[in-house]
Every structure is written in structure tokens, then in C-alpha cells.
Automatic annotation (TrEMBL):
Sequence segments annotated as region (Disordered): 23-45, 69-95
Protein name: Carbohydrate porin
Record's keyword terms, sorted: Signal
Similarity comment text for this entry: Belongs to the OprB family.
Organism from which the protein derives: Bombella saccharophila
């Protein structure tokens, strides 16, 4: 039923997620209106004009660029169209008259492949139902380096339906948004054949099956408090990427060590990552009544089995080993969108406590390809209560004066994990994205990013001890794994992404056993 509805209506990539704390409307006019006056915030006191402004974004819904720093991000991977900017009119203001777009120009510039057939999506959006969908794929091969030569392909199809309960029920008050997301993954990954600690294909993993990605109720109570609870994942809201130009900044890369969050936190704790969904809840406090400051807390079930193929629709606590308790502080500065006003800057600092009982790092050495027999004689124990923290920074470095759709953004992060249990207690990422490669290609991107993973020195020292004592034959002491990626994001239409790239991997598997590997990759996405 859901998939049939998606195909009939033409799912697009809105994956819209919130009821705004303050309406996000077109930029204020520079001349007085004859039908109403403007408030200092740029809003009109004329009801009809205000309604027209609020609908100017067509079926794509109201996008909250103002929330780009701390908003929930249901899909932490790319493929959606860039937001248009506060004062920019939608590409086509004419109602779509039938199943097909009115013109080729409208087809290329609409936000989804199917557009707005017979105006159905606009009608649904006006009545509180936002439907979204997309196809996304990763392909990669290593012509040299690693354990063996190979090429792999994986893809994902996703369907999202958001219900604005105020509009849907005709209420006079804000009642929040009900989120539903389901997806299906299939294919194979290249990580095991190289092998590497972090997969070079971010769409692969978490069980190649159909699964529930989100089923939750999100509520913006006022300018100061927001909440969400249900089947969610931690990656949406803690140590998440900031949004630039309406897109996930970290996920301008295919390497899963960069997209969609610094991967070591998922390796070191019960952090729930996309596409899995866990019972959980969070609360966000905005002390100044805006996005300038954030204080955030969460609680999530820790379930090591959730990514299994048979657990795609698991919605209970059976098999849970503990509770993941994160907190995050944030500071944001910037204009209402990335096309006007001050340049965006974000800083986030956070930490977590995981109540699960797990083996210490000597019991997890298999991550580095070390056989269990190597742990004989090691101080192997169990630990209850893992902890860790992170620091994130991102900044829009510049915006072209001649064309505000073109600009450059930078990000960096550092993640730290409990040295008793962490596979990778130190982890760093950094990246640079240029949007608007040429004057004629304002939505194309070129991105350069890197990640560095440092192995737990306890494991390194233990394997070196075995080698010195003559018991380490065939063992390699792990040290670090580094990767760098360069890619070009080509957008021939707003709903289509083709992103070829190159990756270079140093010390695959964090050991000096295999030659450094070069990868040729391609990401494709179609937003419906």
C-alpha cells in the first residue's frame, strides 16, 4: 500500500521533519505592500498575503534552514535537492495539470522526479501529509591495493510519510508531527574484501533487508523546548552533521568513515545509527528561544542485534543490553539561510554514558583481524558503563558575491572513547565542500574529505608483547587507518545526483599487512 501510494503520487525528497517554531517565509519586500504592512520580522499582517507566502515553496513544504545546526535529520545521507533560499521562488509556480510535468524546464527543475501530478502532492501537503522517497546507490572498486581486487554495488530505496497533526485534524493548536520511514537495502560492500575498519560505501550495512527507519512523534512545544520519542536512532540528533544549503554536509562523501557521523562512536558504544531504529527519546532546550544555543539530552535502547537481517521491524526491548544516555551542547551563528545574511558557524560538544556490560578491548580484537587465541593470557574482563565524548566544528568559509548559490563550507570533528573498551578511542574527520563549481553549475559540488582512526594502544602493545615473546607469529599490531576522498557531485536535474569519486586508503584494516588501496567509486540518487 505504501509503495503504491509512493509511486502514484510521486514521492520526493522532502523528508520534511518539523513544525517550525517560527514560520519560515520569503524575504520581506523592500517596498510597502498595498494589501498589508510588514512587521519588523518581515511578516505581513494580511492573512491572505501571509498564506500565499507560506505556500510559495510548493509541495516541497516549509524547509527550515534556520534549524540547519540542530534539527533532526531523518536521512543522514544525500540525494535530496538543495534548498532554494529564503527569497527564491520555486522553479515552477504553475499547477501541474496532469501526470507529467507541464514542460521540460519544469521537469528538470522540480524537486522530485514525479513532480506534483494533478497537484496531488500540494493538496496532501496542505492537508498535513508529506510524502517523500528516493533511490540511492553506491558502487566502488579497487584497481590496486588491499587484499584482493574487487568491485561492489549496493543500493537503498526509502519511503517517508510525515503527518502534521494540526493540519490533518484541523486543530487550532500545534499537535506535532508523526514520522514514518521505511527502507530496503540490498547489495554487497567492499569493506570486507579490502579489508578496512570503516566501509568505503556508506549505503552498505545494517542488514540488507527491508526495515523500519523511524516511527515517532516530534513536538515543538514552544521556542524553547522540542521533544521526540518512538522508534528513532541517535544519529539523527547527536554528533550529527550540520546542514548546508539544505543538505547534509558530512554526506557529501561516500566513505562511511565520514558519512553520516564520525564512525568510531558507533564502534565504541551503543550509539544507534541509521538505518536502524531503537526505542528512544530526546529533549532539546533553546535557552535564547532560537538556534543560537542548544542544551540536549537523550535516552536510547542499546540493542546489538538490531542490525540483523531478521530484526528489520523489531520494536521491542528484547535483547537490549542497556541504555545509551547522550548529551550535547551547541552554539550556532548565521543567517536565516545559506544564501543571505551572516555566514553559518556551528560548534557542538557532547558526551555519553552507556550502561551496557561489555568485554574490555582485549575481547574485541577481532575487529582488527586478530584471532581469539591471541587474547589468551590478556587481562580480559567485563566492563559496565562505557563513556566518551566529541567535539564538532563547521563553518561556511565564503559565499560568492556574484551568485549566493555558490559557496564553500568546512567541517572538522574529534571523537574520544573509553580507553578500557573502545576499539578506536581517537578518531578525527575533516572536509571541505565547494558548492557551485562553475557559474553555469551552481548546484554541482566538489568535495575533499579525510578520516583518521587510531587503534586502541592497549591492543597494539599487547600484540607487540606477543611478538617479542615469540607468540605473535602471523599477528600484526594495529596502529591507524587513514582515508581521503575527492569527488564531484553532478546534478543535471534537481532530483538527480551523479557523484564519481576517488578514495585512497592507507593501512587497510589499521595494520601494515596489505598495500595501500585506491578506490574508484560512484554514487547515484534519484529523489522521487
Amino acid at each position: 500500500m505504501a509503495m503504491a501510494m509512493c509511486m502514484l503520487l510521486g514521492c520526493h525528497s522532502a523528508f520534511a521533519h518539523t513544525i517550525p517554531r517560527k514560520p519560515f517565509i520569503s524575504a520581506p519586500k523592500t517596498t510597502p505592500s498595498t494589501e498589508g504592512t510588514l512587521t519588523p520580522d518581515g511578516e505581513t499582517d494580511n492573512a491572505q498575503e501571509k498564506a500565499a507566502l507560506l505556500k510559495s515553496s510548493s509541495y516541497n513544504g516549509l524547509k527550515r534552514d534556520e534549524e540547519k545546526a540542530f534539527a533532526s535529520t531523518p536521512l543522514p545521507i544525500p540525494g535530496d535537492s538543495f534548498s532554494r533560499g529564503a527569497a527564491e521562488e520555486p522553479a515552477s509556480t504553475a499547477r501541474q495539470k496532469g501526470l507529467l510535468p507541464n514542460s521540460w524546464h519544469d521537469f528538470i527543475n522540480q524537486d522530485g522526479f514525479f513532480g506534483d501530478p494533478w497537484g496531488a502532492r500540494t493538496w496532501l501537503s496542505d492537508h498535513g501529509i508529506t510524502v517523500g522517497g528516493r533511490y540511492f546507490s553506491d558502487s566502488a572498486g579497487n584497481p590496486f591495493g588491499g587484499k584482493s581486487r574487487a568491485a561492489r554495488y549496493a543500493d537503498e530505496e526509502a519511503l517517508s510519510i510525515d503527518f502534521d497533526l494540526k493540519k490533518l485534524a484541523g486543530l487550532e493548536f500545534n499537535a506535532g508531527v508523526l514520522h514514518f520511514l521505511t527502507l530496503a537495502r540490498q547489495g554487497a560492500g567492499l569493506g570486507n574484501t579490502l579489508p578496512v575498519i570503516n566501509s568505503p560505501m556508506e549505503i552498505y550495512g545494517a542488514g540488507e533487508t527491508m526495515r523500519l527507519g523511524r516511527l515517532s512523534w516530534e513536538m515543538h512545544w514552544n521556542h524553547y523546548v522540542q521533544t521526540e520519542f518512538g522508534e528513532i536512532n541517535t544519529e539523527n540528533d547527536f554528533e550529527q552533521s550540520s546542514t548546508y544549503w539544505g543538505a547534509n554536509l558530512y554526506c557529501q562523501f561516500q566513505n562511511n568513515g565520514i558519512c553520516g557521523m564520525p564512525q568510531s562512536i558507533a564502534m565504541n558504544s551503543g550509539y544507534g545509527f541509521y538505518p536502524t531504529a531503537h526505542p528512544g527519546a530526546w529533549v532539546k532546550f533553546f535557552p535564547a528561544g532560537n538556534d543560537h544555543y542548544l542544551v540536549q539530552f537523550g535516552v536510547y535502547s542499546v540493542d546489538p542485534t538490531i542490525s540483523g537481517v531478521r530484526n528489520g521491524w523489531k520494536m521491542n526491548l528484547h535483547g537490549a543490553t542497556g541504555t545509551f544516555l547522550p548529551f550535547q551542547l551547541g552554539w550556532h551563528q548565521g543567517g536565516e539561510d545559506d544564501y543571505s545574511g551572516p555566514l553559518q558557524t556551528n560548534v557542538k560538544v557532547g558526551g555519553y554514558w552507556d550502561t551496557s556490560e561489555v568485554k574490555n578491548v582485549y575481547g574485541q580484537m577481532g575487529t582488527y583481524g586478530i584471532p581469539p587465541s591471541a587474547a589468551e593470557g590478556a587481562p580480559l574482563t567485563k566492563v559496565r558503563g562505557r563513556f566518551g565524548g566529541w567535539f564538532q566544528f563547521d563553518r561556511m568559509l565564503q559565499r560568492d558575491e556574484a551568485d549566493p548559490h555558490r559557496g564553500t563550507a568546512f567541517f572538522g570533528s574529534f571523537t574520544w572513547g573509553d580507553p578500557r573498551t573502545a576499539i578506536a578511542p581517537y578518531y578525527m574527520t575533516a572536509g571541505l565542500t565547494r558548492k557551485g563549481t562553475f557559474a553555469s553549475r551552481p548546484d554541482d559540488t566538489i568535495s575533499l574529505g579525510m578520516k583518521v582512526l587510531w587503534a586502541n594502544p592497549k591492543v597494539t602493545h599487547w600484540i607487540q608483547h606477543l611478538q617479542r615473546s615469540g607468540r605473535g607469529a602471523g599477528l600484526y599490531a594495529p596502529h591507524s587507518e587513514e582515508a581521503i576522498e575527492l569527488n564531484y557531485g553532478y546534478r543535471p536535474a534537481r532530483w538527480l545526483l551523479l557523484r564519481p569519486g576517488l578514495q585512497y586508503l592507507w593501512n587497510p584494516g589499521a595494520i601494515k599487512r596489505y598495500k595501500d588501496a585506491m578506490l574508484i567509486d560512484l554514487e547515484t540518487a534519484i529523489a522521487f
